[in-house]
Structures are given as structure tokens and as C-alpha cells.
Design brief:
- The complex is a heterodimer of chains A (155) and B (149).
- Chain A has helices at 32-48, 53-74, 116-123, and strands at 24-29, 81-89, 92-99, 126-132, 136-144.
- By secondary structure, chain A is of the alpha+beta class.
- In chain A, strand 2 and strand 3 (92-99) form a beta hairpin.
- Chain B has one domain (22-143): 2-Layer Sandwich (Heat Shock Protein 90), CATH 3.30.565.10.
- In chain B, a hairpin with a 3-residue loop joins strand 4 (110-111) and strand 5.
- Chain B has five helices and seven strands, in the order H-E-H-H-E-E-H-E-E-H-E-E.
- Chain B is globular.
- Chain B has helices at 12-18, 34-48, 53-69, 101-108, 117-121, and strands at residues 24-29, 78-86, 89-97, 110-111, 115-116, 124-128, 136-143.
- The chains are: A alpha+beta (155), B alpha+beta (149).
């Protein structure tokens, strides 16, 4: 096992909390099973930089909703990809979920307005949405590392 | 990296991937998160590929070795890994690496008293270059066969 092998120093050692001074990019086929993969990566991030469990839970749920939107609505008639970027920004961690699909808007396969974006807005400390028809969408979700700090913006 | 061949009777996500779907890729800036994130991604894709527990453990160990050793051999400040799960197999492509980095990464994966872990665990290890992307790439393939690995 890795624990027995000398030279493995990349793990988070007890007592030190590494700063998130790097970014992570995941590029995946827009399929339901890959949403769990993103959730796992966020779990690894949260454990690696010792984020509060509540923050990690909020990140997971918000990103799950964002990725689910892509899987369900972005590519109606062809395969496509999701890109998830996790990037530090001062006291916040930004998670950007983007696609190159049809953009946001009413979807023919949904009867009424969904709760996804409202839920994401409630879970994040800042939410930015960019989209254009047939050019894709981009959701930037900011999560403060310390949730009792001042919010970094408004929805 | 060559596409994976569908296994007999393969269905679901692994079969779709092996049918030519573009791979999952992860790109992590060099730092303390490379190992934790890469091992989770590899572990989950190995499970999805229906690798048995011992081979899943092997895949995670290979991921840990890549995370620990690859930073010295990449051309940028990032570790890039493309992953293709198939039916009871998982392929990883690490790179771009600097010239000679593929071989050097394999050599660096040797552990005193154990030998070269990647070469021992993988079904195939290959260094490629000269494709559309500059640099070298280390291609590692893990599989499970009933008759052995």
C-alpha cells in the first residue's frame, strides 16, 4: 500500500492545512455517472484543504445541481462534455461548471421551472451565470472558506 | 492513446467509454491536491470499470505513484491525466511530459526492495510521442482477466 512506500509525501499530514493555491480541472462526458465523479473530486478537495463539512456538502450539492442541468438539458441530441474548474480566489473557492450546449432557457423536456438554479443560488456565496443560445453556459459558484465571513457578492 | 476494445457482453458506462467516447481528463496544478484528487478519480473510474478490489487497489497505487513522481517530469506546472474506463480495464495517459520524461517517470516509480511498481502492476506501459500534441505521454493500462492480471 502507498503508506508503506517511502517518498509519498503528497498526502495531507496532520497538523498542517495546505492552502488551495492550485486549481483543478475536470473534463468529462456529460453523462449522469460522471456527476458522482465530480462529487468525489470535491470531497478530495475538501479533505485536502480541511474545508468545513457543511461547506463541502454545499459545494457538492450545488455542483451536483449544476452538472445535472448540463447532463439533462445542454446536449439534447448529441454527446457533449462538462468542464468543472475548481479555483481559489482569495477567501473563496470558485467552482465553474461550463458546457458547450444549447445554453440556458426553457427546456422542452421539463414541464415547469426547476429548482436547480434557485437551490444553487441559496447554497453559494456568489453565483454568476453566463450563457448564450447554442454556445453553452457557464456557472461560477463561489464558496467562502469560512462561511461566517462577509459574503463576496450577491446573486 | 488507442481506444479500448469493448469486452464481451459489456454494457453501461464502461461499454460506452470503450466504444470511443472521449476520455475523462483531470488536470491539477502541481501541489498537495494532486494525490488526493487523482486517487479518488482513478479509484472511482476503476470501480466503474468493474475491476475487482485488488486491481482497483493497484490502480489507486499507480495513481499515487504518478501523483508523487510526475511533477518532476511534466512540461508545465500541471499534472494532466486522461482516463478511459473499459470493461474490466482502465487506461491512463499521463502528459505531456518533457523529452525522456516518460521513461524517467517509470524509473522513478521503482521502490527499493519492491522494484518498479508501475511496470509490475500494469498490463502494459508505453511511452508515446510524435502525435498532434507536443511532448511525451506515458500510457498505462490495467485490466483484469479471470486467468490473472
Amino acid at each position: 500500500m502507498p503508506d508503506d512506500i517511502p517518498g509519498f509525501d503528497h498526502r495531507v499530514a496532520g497538523g498542517s492545512v495546505p492552502a488551495l493555491d492550485s486549481d483543478i480541472t475536470l473534463t468529462l462526458p456529460a453523462r449522469p455517472e460522471n456527476i458522482a465523479l465530480v462529487r468525489h473530486a470535491i470531497g478530495a478537495l475538501g479533505a485536502g484543504i480541511r474545508l468545513p463539512k457543511a461547506t463541502v456538502d454545499d459545494m457538492r450539492l450545488a455542483v451536483t445541481e449544476a452538472c445535472t442541468n448540463v447532463v439533462r438539458h445542454a446536449y439534447s441530441d448529441h454527446d457533449g462534455r462538462i468542464e468543472v474548474v475548481i479555483r481559489p480566489d482569495g477567501e473563496a473557492i470558485n467552482v465553474i461548471v461550463s458546457d458547450h450546449g444549447r445554453g440556458l432557457g426553457s427546456s422542452p423536456d421539463v414541464a415547469g421551472p426547476g429548482l436547480g438554479l434557485s437551490l444553487i443560488a441559496a447554497l453559494t456565496d456568489r453565483l454568476e451565470i453566463d450563457h448564450a443560445p447554442q454556445k453553452g453556459s457557464r456557472l461560477l459558484m463561489a464558496f467562502l472558506r469560512r462561511r461566517n465571513a462577509h459574503p463576496v457578492g450577491a446573486v | 492513446m488507442s481506444g479500448l476494445q469493448p469486452g464481451a457482453g459489456s454494457e453501461g458506462a464502461a461499454a460506452r467509454s470503450s466504444a470511443g467516447e472521449s476520455p475523462t481528463s483531470v488536470s491539477i496544478a502541481i501541489g498537495p491536491l494532486v494525490g488526493p484528487v487523482l486517487r479518488r478519480v482513478v479509484g472511482m473510474l476503476a470501480a466503474r470499470a468493474d475491476l475487482p478490489l485488488d486491481r482497483l487497489d493497484d490502480a489507486v497505487l499507480v495513481a499515487d505513484l504518478i501523483a508523487a513522481r510526475a511533477p518532476a517530469h511534466v512540461t508545465t506546472e500541471r499534472i494532466d491525466v486522461a482516463l478511459e474506463p473499459g470493461q474490466r480495464r482502465l487506461a491512463l495517459r499521463v502528459g505531456p511530459l518533457r523529452d525522456g520524461g516518460g521513461k524517467a517517470l517509470i524509473v522513478d516509480a521503482a521502490v527499493p526492495g519492491v522494484g518498479n511498481v508501475i511496470e509490475q502492476l500494469a498490463d502494459s506501459v508505453e511511452v508515446t510521442s510524435g502525435g498532434p500534441e507536443p511532448g511525451e505521454f506515458l500510457n498505462v493500462r490495467l485490466a483484469y482477466n479471470n486467468g490473472g492480471t
